Amino acid sequence: MVGKEAMTCQVIRVTRPDTCLVRTYLPAVQGHVTVNLVLEGVKCKKAAKQEIIDWVEIHADAERLRLITWEWFRDEYGRVLGDLGDLQTGETLTQWLLDRKVAEARPDHYLEILRNMVASEEPELP
């Protein structure tokens, strides 16, 4: 998470089994930003999409959702890596998905992204 303050957020849409469109207030720019958030450290099955929708419905009331991210690290598609948490219970979305067995742990997620970034070729300039 950036800084020590919890960034509350709103999930606008679940776009893929591992990706959400999230809106949050970012103090650094003094405004709201909307980003695609890919869940870090898990590989989700197709059934995870409905589980994410259900989890967000349960935890989204009264602005209890917080965006958890590390330095706004992005994957090769520009999606922010992170997680969603409940401010009151401390429960996280990725742990919920792992417990429901619709996701598998992916401890080398950051390494995969770095490997893909290093292996990608820059287009030649004319």
List keywords for this structure.
five-stranded mixed β-barrel, two-stranded antiparallel sheet, 126 residues, globular, 7 strands, alpha+beta, 24% helix
Please provide a written account of the structure.
The longest helix is centred in the middle third of the chain and has 12 residues, at 48-59. The protein has 126 residues and is α+β, with helices and mostly antiparallel strands. The termini are far apart. The protein has helices at residues 48-59, 93-99, 109-119, and strands spanning 7-16, 19-26, 31-39, 42-44, 65-74, 80-86, 103-105. The mean pLDDT is 88.
Termini gap: 40 Å
Strand percent estimate:
35-45%
How many DSSP E strands? Answer: 7
How would you classify the helix and strand content by structural class? alpha+beta
Helix content: 10-25%
Helical stretch tally: 3
- Provide the low-confidence segments as ranges: none
One letter per element, helices H and strands E, the order comes to: EEEEHEEHEH
Short note summarizing the structure:
By secondary structure, the chain is of the alpha+beta class. Helices cover 24% and strands 40% of the residues.
Helices, strands, pairings?
Elements: E1 7-16, E2 19-26, E3 31-39, E4 42-44, H1 48-59, E5 65-74, E6 80-86, H2 93-99, E7 103-105, H3 109-119
Parallel strand pairs: 3-6
Antiparallel strand pairs: 1-2, 1-5, 2-3, 4-7, 5-6
